[in-house]
Amino acid sequence: MPNRRFADGEVVMGRWPGSVLYYEVQVASYDDVSHLYTVKYKDGTELALKESDIRSQSSFKHRKSQSSSSSPSRRSTSRSRSRSPGRPAKGRRRSSSQSREHKDDKKKAIQEANLAPLVFVFLFKPSENNTRRYNGEPDSTEGNDTSCVILEQKLKPDLEIERVLEQYSLRPRKEEKKKEEIYSEKKVFETIKTIEKTSSKTKELEFGGRIGTFTMIFFLPATVLYLLLMCKQDDPSLMNFPPLPALESLWEARVFGVFLLWFFLQVLFYLLPIGRVVEGLPLSNGRKLQYRINGFYAFVLTAAAIGTLLYFQFELHYLYDHLLQFAVSAAAFSLGLSIYLYIRSLKVPEEELAPGGNSGYFVYDFFTGHELNPRIGSFDLKYFCELRPGLIGWVVLNLAMLLAEMKIHNQSVPSLSMILVNSFQLLYVVDALWNEEAILTTMDITHDGFGFMLAFGDLVWVPFVYSLQAFYLVGHPTAISWPVAAAITILNCIGYYIFRSANSQKNNFRRNPADPKLAYLKFIPTATGKGLLVTGWWGFVRHPNYLGDIIMALAWSLPCGFNHILPYFYVIYFICLLVHREARDEHHCKQKYGLAWERYCQRVPYRIFPYIY
């Protein structure tokens, strides 16, 4: 293994990729595998450079002085050789030509420096984040920009032959300058592709790295089981730990069969040729995947199927009686699906792997997801699981709890608390399915791979943890007055209004920043060609959709009263989840936008809660 030449912390001169310009940088670290140095520029930008692109300050200054002393003689020699034999050599003409050359050199240097933002665009490509399960991250409020892809397509012709022609001055000077700019841009993009290839591995591990992700594979199912067992107890206090059930009681083949029937029924609804087909955001290779937007139609068909079952007197509270077995069946299915996803990801090209799940560590990549968009033909597994089986299943479970409450307590109508919980969460799910296209700009789709984290979250965590309030009310009925119900309803409406209007504002700006309807919005331009909104909801706090989410989560729990903290687990969990996502957003946006993000933070100092955090 070759010895490294520069030490950590050493100040050296680093060449900016795609140019001949050197800048003062500080060595941050060295990768023994790729033999690349991570260096930090004065403006905070971090890049991975080869050792050949780094010079010590002393040698760089020495070569620079040597170059400046010898370049005039070479320049004059070159000019004298290209002069016609019968043309007299005049000192004045020579000096003016040298002056023009000097200006051209300066222009070329400026031009190459101006191409630096293009490198920045490709090195720090956006990674989106999601609000709750389907809208959001990172809420960088940027607009889409495809100019870089168009520019790369212009560089396909072979320009080396053109350079040979220009060497003999066979073209006008203006055309020569234009060709030099294109050639320089081509060099930049070639350098970008080389850097992307060498830096495609995931370097920053989240969720506690390998140990943290290994722990969460067991901790998440245990948490779901614990919460469901607690709701079954007469006294669901946190200190009253529930007895562990017998293992054979947690599994039933018939329940697993019903779960499979549910899953493949949603697959059938997804494959129906109804609804619009839209394109997602560009992938790293410039390709756009197509998605069929028919989630709301699937919800309507599911409602019709459930209504038919109830008409023929099917006992839907069967779901309540076997909720633990359904949760275990869903967990087993998500584990099997995750294993299949990881095995198939080992055969896909490097460009189809997830930016955040390509660490080279089995456990970490298995948990976060190794492949970005696993598909079977046109059937997108990740996109399907995001909204269909789990989110629609959440509504079905809530309805089962409502019917179970009426049967167990001999009620002709459900309690007011149960009606509020079902109504609030039904509104949330319908909103998600109605605005299904918004999920295509979220981090789940554009950045995160499809592995155990999303598979378990979509198929187990969402339906069985998000329905916790309704499950709690079946065994612990809580009576509330109409004025209290009205106040809780107003609170939920406020949260929903903030959540929906903020997300719509962000998604519309991402899709088409030039939309005349968004002319009232002000933004900070960035080096990536995108903008950071500083007016509207995004000028109020940095993550207004998270604020709306938390207000709604509180409104969902308040109908359960204050006898136990268990119904408020979802609020506590959700605050912790959003604070984690917000911290991840901040880190990604700081890397991506640099000084523009610092300006944005100065304009919008509060992250989620105004005047608090």
TrEMBL record:
Biological-process GO terms, alphabetical: cholesterol biosynthetic process
Lineage: Eukaryota, Metazoa, Chordata, Craniata, Vertebrata
Organism from which the protein derives: Nyctibius bracteatus
Bias-annotated ranges (Basic residues): 76-95
Pathway: Steroid biosynthesis; cholesterol biosynthesis
Catalytic reaction(s) noted: 5alpha-cholest-8,14-dien-3beta-ol + NADPH + H(+) = 5alpha-cholest-8-en-3beta-ol + NADP(+); 4,4-dimethyl-8,14-cholestadien-3beta-ol + NADPH + H(+) = 4,4-dimethyl-5alpha-cholest-8-en-3beta-ol + NADP(+); 4,4-dimethyl-5alpha-cholesta-8,24-dien-3beta-ol + NADP(+) = 4,4-dimethyl-5alpha-cholesta-8,14,24-trien-3beta-ol + NADPH + H(+)
Region feature (Disordered): 53-108
InterPro entries found in the cross-reference section: ERG24_DHCR-like (IPR001171), Lamin-B_rcpt_of_tudor (IPR019023), Sterol_reductase_CS (IPR018083), Tudor (IPR002999)
Keywords annotated in UniProt: Cholesterol biosynthesis, Cholesterol metabolism, Cytoplasm, DNA-binding, Endoplasmic reticulum, Lipid biosynthesis, Lipid metabolism, Membrane, Nucleus, Oxidoreductase, Phosphoprotein, Receptor, Steroid biosynthesis, Steroid metabolism, Sterol biosynthesis, Sterol metabolism, Transmembrane, Transmembrane helix
Localization: Cytoplasm; Endoplasmic reticulum membrane; Nucleus inner membrane
EC top class named in words: oxidoreductase
Entry protein name: Delta(14)-sterol reductase LBR
A Gene Ontology cellular-component term: endoplasmic reticulum membrane
